[in-house]
Write a structure and sequence with these properties.
The protein contains 6 helices and 21 strands. With 340 residues, it is an alpha+beta fold. The strands form 4 sheets. The protein has a 6-stranded mixed beta sheet with strand order 1-9-8-3-4-5. Strands 10, 11, 12, 13, 14 and 15 form a 6-stranded mixed beta sheet that branches. Strands 16, 17, 18, 19, 20 and 21 form a 6-stranded mixed beta sheet that branches. The N terminus is likely disordered. One of its GO terms (biological process) is skeletal system development.
Length: 340
């Protein structure tokens, strides 16, 4: 009949649309109809540490006639991206707090790689390099991963006292930040076994179990146990904090000191009483091993062990041992100081 499309013609028009819908349903990107300007990265995960300079590679195979490159950071758990920098290949403009420490590498005319100087704990995460040419935008994603250590944290008044925002603040006060799920998982593979649930950066509540036992979620398989997403304002748990290499060093001052005397002892040596994150970083990265309990800035008493032995906490694995939070007037401990 005149005006009707033949079956072959219908297939010609409908098949590409059908395949695109199928790819989307399967979670795969539909085939890109135009040229690919960005080269796929050789390494999608870039490893660094606090204080270092990190380079996130983004290279054009061939440039379109007119384009911009937009760098952004994907914020976990917040479903948003933070703009870092925009460049047209000749000039670049930074945005936000990270933009002041970020610049283009510009190793050659096709190089759109991002350089971050003075890497901070909050810089870890997923980044996107997006080429914008007004026709077919495309992007590559990379992950900046910091070498660090995860430590569980609770305040002096006992366990399960923090809502999400209080947990976030507590970690920052101890020279850390809330750990991500990936960081907690890495710590679990390295031996972290903890029976109290804690907040993570994404807003979930979890705890790592190496030795399954009845008081820790039952005798199932080892793993990361999850309470799932919780109300960030109402629900209360501990915190899992993450810290990395520090610029300074931690040292022990022996004695039988009160907490105020510990502060004075560190000041006389041009230092401050160490934070919990400082002690964990010194244990993890400097191999600090001291079989003496010492005051820390939050009022807790702890000591780091890299070579376990019977009279140093009695546990078979390395770690930072804790005496809890003694009375501040109790003159029974030395102190750990931090100096830059």
């Amino acid at each position: 009949m005149p005006g009707l499309l033949s079956l072959p013609t219908l297939c010609h028009f409908l098949l590409p649309w059908a395949f695109a819908i199928l790819h989307k349903a399967l979670g795969d990107a539909a085939p890109h109809p135009g040229p690919h300007y960005l080269l796929p990265p050789i390494h999608e995960v870039i490893h660094s540490h606090r204080g270092a300079t990190a380079t996130l590679p983004c290279v054009l195979g061939t440039p379109p006639p007119s384009y911009k490159v937009r760098w952004s950071k994907v914020e976990p758990g917040e479903l948003r991206e933070t703009l870092i920098l925009i460049t047209n290949g000749l000039h670049a403009r930074g945005y936000g707090p990270l933009g002041g420490r970020a610049r283009m590498r510009r190793g050659h005319r096709l190089d759109a790689s991002l350089v971050i100087e003075g890497v901070r704990l909050e810089d870890e995460g997923r980044y996107r390099c997006e080429l914008i040419n007004g026709i077919e935008d495309e992007s590559v994603a990379l992950t900046l991963r910091l070498e660090g250590v995860v430590f569980p944290y609770q305040p002096s008044r006992g366990r399960y006292q923090f809502n999400y925002y209080e947990a976030k603040q507590a970690c920052e006060e101890q020279d850390g930040r809330l750990a991500t799920y990936a960081q907690l998982y890495q710590a679990w593979t390295e031996g972290l076994d903890w029976c109290n649930a804690g907040w993570l950066l994404e807003g979930s509540v979890r705890y790592p179990v190496l030795t399954a036992r009845a008081p820790c979620g039952g005798r199932g398989r080892p793993g990361i146990r999850s309470y799932g997403p919780r109300d960030r304002k109402r629900d209360r748990y501990d915190a899992f904090c993450f810290t990395s290499v520090t610029a300074g060093h931690v040292f022990f001052v022996p004695g039988r000191l009160t907490l105020s005397e510990a502060h004075a002892a560190c000041r006389r040596r041009g230092a401050t009483v160490a934070k919990v994150g400082h002690l964990y970083a010194a244990w993890k990265f400097s191999g600090l091993d001291q079989c003496d309990g010492g005051w820390l800035a939050d009022g807790s008493v702890r000591f780091p062990i890299t070579s376990p032995r019977p009279r140093c906490g009695g546990l078979p694995d390395p770690g930072v041992r804790s005496f809890g939070f003694p009375r501040a007037q109790q003159a029974a401990f030395g102190t750990y100081c931090y100096s830059e």
